[in-house]
């Protein structure tokens, strides 16, 4: 809080901020607009924006007028007891949530629910706090005429507005840090509390919830060529004309319409065939760009007992191995491959794939062995039945193969249909250039469908803690935008109107991708004037409003998926440079032109 | 007075208030020319809604003129840099209620880019000056109105301004505070500050201002040095020690013969109040348009207290009050005693209701009468007090 006497005069400060903002907007637009069109963007481009952004924020805080107003705003918000009310509400919500929501009865489910609802409640409460405070903070200054004194000091109006905005952000940052830390604490408490978990649940908690994983979707299948070959096949069999005639009746005799309808039908059939597998048949997926990231953990273990019939042994491990090894991790002891199928305290049960022969089982008991725990990847999938399947259970064999070395993971599984299932596989199935092949042989009596978007490979990519920090930062970005929106709205209309503006914008921001898709679809189908107009409006909105459905961390965090620094940086640059600055610029212009007093005669 | 030397120079300033459809509704200020010279205390006078506050807001850049120019310390009011030389005390406390006195002054000090040590030094001295050192850590929202005025004055002075704009500075202050305030204005003036005061309290203006300007209906009605405006140039007043009748006769004799020394001769002064009322009533007689308040008419018809005779009593009372109140406004400049002795009016009014009352319902009417009496007495007392001062 030291006050450095600023040598900048008001107008010079304005120029510096204006030039910095322009540079930031140009630098960001240069990569963000091509990115929105779908072209690739080098990571350093976002880095430039983030550096400019940091520079601009530092400049704003350095300007003494802005700093004074920001500090005063922070005091004001706290002393009006908004912070207190928020913390009480949040504490109640967080305390009650884990009690009433048990998820599916597993700890993993409970933790997912906690994180999902917890971040949701924090984001919602803070959005409300931000909108109400932001909308009232300037409009109330004008209504109660506090602004008469403030603005007749040598404080340019834009500095007043930015000070209000930054003060609100400071408050938000504090409240967000406190509440995010509380949520993190509750989650860690639940994680550590239950030591008598079953191994599957423990694995899910460690590798799916408290994880930051990268996700890779299966490489796309060339559907068009499949459609072509199918048509060729029909023609060869002489069935094409027959089919066209049959469709021609339905199309009212128009040949081109009949052709189009046939093409659509064939397309549908091909897609269905690609995604389905009949009983006793196989389907395969190829993945690329899988990154195992982690390295093997090595530690010492003592063999306790040998169950020769089942080809498994109990070992007692040292501290490091216990701490970092989730159940079902792939392990190597000497040259034998296996995996941990149960953990009891520091004792682990290791199941070997290739038998115990290589380990010289006779002298094994009591021996000190070196154990390597390999990094893992996970294959997650969700299967739906398209035929009759008893018990709703999918039986089958999964093969995960390294196309380079030929290393194979083979597993027979029974999974509940329509539920996501996870296959934990050693990282050795990933080739050096990140390729993996996955095959599934359907052992059920009916055919099942596994859509391409329903199967993916997840690989460890960083710690949960940092992921959580990035998720929190994403929430702060939303609040930064909302602060600007509400403060600016409050600077030219009264409190209720400003609230209304913000609350109208909020659902649009939340459902933007949905709206965009809907309008795009209707443009493609109809092509009429209204649809084109709607498209234009949605395009404008997608420039002006952030897309919280994409930029909020909720589901990503809950699924244990990594939020990359790059994504955070890009979101920060786009949210602040493209949207927040625009809103603030409009607010500053309006406030500059506004008569702050009323003529009272 | 040329423009270049003025601290505040206002030329043909007009402020028209428009409604939502941009239709002109009210002319708050019309073609106003003003010059506030360096180092003087300038008083802005006028009845409610005469445009004083609008003018001050335009000088401060809180309102933008519809037409005309405002020049403050050589700059436009929208120029932010010039604000560092201005101190402003608004008509009410518009301070943040959740800050304590020290934080309030610290916040405004920061806006002038004062460093921490300088702020602390000035805050200590200002709190001491306005007598709030003891309560510096209480929130401003808990202060009484007078205390809020004091802290408001302190914030107006934190930048050691060259120009001080005080809107209704003594409203809500106790007599001691008012006295101190007036002394302070004089002191600041002798230290070379230029001060613009707007006030309803004519005594304050009379005591402190060098020059005044009287506004009515957004137009300037009078402007000049306070002595020039208040001097009755067709009379001469002689002040001397106590004189016996013989002495008086001798003085008369001497004066008639001329050439004898007199201890003190000065022009008797109008009271500012009389001047003010005269200007306003002249304006009203000329039916000059004003968007502000005009002298009230008869009491609204619907304001009945009872029925029948009671009503008549009230009507009578109202009429009496009207007569009593109209006296100064019709002939404000008249010196000498009022045509009707105050006491008689009072007694007359008090006795009347009782005689007018129907004897059968004393309980029902009595409270009404008492209330009516009170207000009459109050208004009369106020009148007579003002007259006696």
Keywords:
heterodimer, A: 601 residues, alpha+beta, 6-stranded antiparallel barrel, 19 helices, globular, disordered N terminus, B: 389 residues, alpha/beta, Rossmann fold, 6-stranded mixed beta sheet, 17% strand, disordered C terminus
Architecture overview:
The complex is a heterodimer of chains A (601) and B (389). Chain A is an alpha+beta fold. Chain A is built from 19 helices and 17 strands. Chain A has helices at residues 10-37, 43-62, 64-79, 82-100, 107-143, 146-151, 157-193, 199-209, 223-236, 240-250, 255-275, 319-324, 464-490, 495-510, 512-525, 529-544, 548-551, 554-558, 565-593, and strands spanning 213-217, 276-277, 282-287, 297-307, 312-317, 330-333, 336-344, 347-352, 368-373, 376-381, 384-385, 393-401, 408-416, 421-426, 436-442, 448-449, 455-460. A 6-stranded antiparallel beta barrel of chain A has the order 4-5-8-7-6-9. A 4-stranded antiparallel beta sheet of chain A has the order 1-17-10-14, with no helix packed on it. A 4-stranded antiparallel beta sheet of chain A has the order 3-15-12-13, with no helix packed on it. In chain A, a hairpin with a 6-residue loop joins strand 12 (393-401) and strand 13. In chain A, helix 9 (223-236) crosses helix 11 and helix 13 (464-490) packs parallel to helix 19 (565-593). With 389 residues, chain B is of the alpha/beta class. Chain B has a domain at 8-230: P-loop containing nucleotide triphosphate hydrolases (Rossmann fold, 3-Layer(aba) Sandwich), CATH 3.40.50. Chain B has helices spanning 52-60, 101-111, 116-129, 145-157, 175-190, 202-208, 226-230, 245-257, 272-285, 309-330, 342-356, 362-388, and strands spanning 8-18, 24-36, 41-45, 67-72, 86-89, 163-167, 194-198, 211-216, 219-225, 237-239, 264-266. In chain B, strands 5-6-7-3-8-9 form a 6-stranded mixed beta sheet, with helices on both faces. Chain B has a 3-stranded antiparallel beta sheet with strand order 2-1-4. A two-stranded antiparallel ribbon of chain B has the order 10-11. The longest helix of chain B is centred in the last third of the chain and has 27 residues, at 362-388.
């Amino acid at each position: 809080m030291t006050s450095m006497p600023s040598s900048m005069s008001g107008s010079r400060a304005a120029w510096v901020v204006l030039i910095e903002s322009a540079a930031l907007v140009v630098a960001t637009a240069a990569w963000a607009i091509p990115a929105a069109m779908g072209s690739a963007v080098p990571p350093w481009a976002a880095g430039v924006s983030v550096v400019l952004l940091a520079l601009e924020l530092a400049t704003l805080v350095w300007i003494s007028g802005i700093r004074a107003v920001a500090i005063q705003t922070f005091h004001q918000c706290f002393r009006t007891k908004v912070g207190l009310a928020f913390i009480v509400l949040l504490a109640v919500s967080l305390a009650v949530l884990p009690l009433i929501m048990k998820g599916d009865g597993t700890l993993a489910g409970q933790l997912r629910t906690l994180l999902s609802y917890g971040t949701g409640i924090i984001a919602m409460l803070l959005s409300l706090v931000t909108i109400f405070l932001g909308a009232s903070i300037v409009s109330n200054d004008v209504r109660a005429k506090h602004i008469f004194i403030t603005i007749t000091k040598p404080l340019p109006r834009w500095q007043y507005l930015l000070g209000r905005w930054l003060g609100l952000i400071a408050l938000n940052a504090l409240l967000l840090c406190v509440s995010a830390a509380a949520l993190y604490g509750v989650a860690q408490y639940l994680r550590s509390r239950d030591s008598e978990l079953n191994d599957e649940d423990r694995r899910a908690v460690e590798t799916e919830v408290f994880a930051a994983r990268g996700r890779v979707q299966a490489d796309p299948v060339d559907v068009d060529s499949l459609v072509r070959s199918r048509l060729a096949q029909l023609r060869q069999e002489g069935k094409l004309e027959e089919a066209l005639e049959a469709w021609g009746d339905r199309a009212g005799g128009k040949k081109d319409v009949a052709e189009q309808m046939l093409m659509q039908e064939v397309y549908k059939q091909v897609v269905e065939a690609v995604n389905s597998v009949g009983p006793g048949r196989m389907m395969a997926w190829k993945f690329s760009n899988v990154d195992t990231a982690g390295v093997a953990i090595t530690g010492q273990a003592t063999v306790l007992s040998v169950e020769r019939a089942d080809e498994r042994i109990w070992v007692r491990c040292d501290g490091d191995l216990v701490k970092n090894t989730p159940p079902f991790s792939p392990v190597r002891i000497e040259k034998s491959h296996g995996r941990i199928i149960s953990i009891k305290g520091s004792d682990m049960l290791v199941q070997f794939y290739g038998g115990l022969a290589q380990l010289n089982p006779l002298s094994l008991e009591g021996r000190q062995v070196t154990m390597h725990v390999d990094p893992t990847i996970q294959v997650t999938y969700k299967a739906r039945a398209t035929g009759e399947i008893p018990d709703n259970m999918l039986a089958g064999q999964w093969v995960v193969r390294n196309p380079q070395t030929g290393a194979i993971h083979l597993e027979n599984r029974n999974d509940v249909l329509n539920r996501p299932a996870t296959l934990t596989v050693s990282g050795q199935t990933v080739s050096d250039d990140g390729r993996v092949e996955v095959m599934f042989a359907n052992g059920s009596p009916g055919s099942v469908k596994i859509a391409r978007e329903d199967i993916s490979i997840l690989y460890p990519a960083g710690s949960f803690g940092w992921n959580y920090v990035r998720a929190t930062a994403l929430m702060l970005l939303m609040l930064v935008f909302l602060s600007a929106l509400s403060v600016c709205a409050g600077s030219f209309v009264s409190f209720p109107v400003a609230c209304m503006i913000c609350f109208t914008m909020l659902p649009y921001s939340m459902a933007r991708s949905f709206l965009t898709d809907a309008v795009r679809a209707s443009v493609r189908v109809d092509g009429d004037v209204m649809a084109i107009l709607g498209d234009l409006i949605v395009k404008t909105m997608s420039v002006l409003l952030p897309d919280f459905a994409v930029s909020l961390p909720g589901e990503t965090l809950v699924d244990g998926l990594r939020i990359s620094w790059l994504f955070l940086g890009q979101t920060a640059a786009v949210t602040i440079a493209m949207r927040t600055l625009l809103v603030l610029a409009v607010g500053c212009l309006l406030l500059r032109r506004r008569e702050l007093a009323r003529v009272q005669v | 007075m040329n423009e270049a030397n003025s601290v505040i120079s206002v030329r043909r300033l007009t402020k028209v208030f428009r409604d939502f459809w941009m239709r002109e509704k009210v002319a708050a200020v019309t073609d106003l020319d003003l010059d506030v010279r360096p180092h003087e205390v300038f008083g802005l006078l006028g009845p409610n809604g005469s445009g004083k506050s609008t003018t001050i807001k335009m000088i401060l850049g809180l309102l933008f003129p519809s037409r005309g120019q405002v020049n403050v310390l050589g700059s436009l009011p929208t120029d932010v840099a010039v604000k560092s030389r201005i101190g402003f005390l608004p008509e009410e406390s518009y301070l943040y209620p959740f800050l304590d006195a020290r934080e309030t002054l610290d916040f405004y000090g920061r806006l002038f880019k004062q460093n921490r040590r300088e702020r602390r030094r000035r805050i200590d001295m200002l709190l001491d000056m306005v007598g709030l050192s003891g309560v510096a850590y209480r929130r401003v929202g808990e202060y009484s109105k007078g205390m809020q005025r004091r802290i408001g004055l302190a914030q107006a002075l934190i930048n050691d301004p060259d120009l001080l704009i005080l809107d209704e500075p003594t409203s809500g202050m106790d007599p001691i505070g008012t006295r101190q305030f007036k002394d302070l204005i004089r002191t600041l003036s002798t230290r070379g500050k230029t001060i613009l005061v707007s006030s309803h309290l004519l005594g304050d203006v009379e005591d402190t201002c060098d020059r005044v300007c009287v506004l009515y209906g957004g137009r300037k009605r009078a402007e000049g040095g306070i002595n020039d405006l208040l001097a009755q140039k067709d009379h001469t007043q002689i002040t001397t020690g106590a004189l016996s009748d013989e002495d008086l006769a001798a003085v008369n004799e001497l004066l008639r013969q001329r050439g004898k020394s007199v201890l003190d001769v000065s022009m008797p002064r109008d009271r500012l109040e009389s001047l003010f009322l005269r200007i306003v009533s002249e304006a009203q007689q000329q039916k000059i348009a004003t968007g502000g308040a005009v002298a009230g008419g008869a009491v609204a018809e619907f304001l009945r207290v009872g029925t029948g005779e009671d009503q008549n009593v009230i009507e009578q009372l109202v009429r009496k009050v009207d007569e009593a109140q109209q006296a100064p406004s019709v002939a404000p400049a008249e010196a000498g005693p009022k045509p009707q002795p105050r006491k008689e009016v009072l007694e007359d009014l008090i006795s009347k209701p009782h005689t007018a009352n129907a004897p059968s319902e004393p309980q029902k009417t009595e409270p009404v009468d008492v209330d009516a009496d009170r207000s009459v007495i109050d208004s009369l007392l106020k009148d007579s007090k003002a007259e006696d001062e």
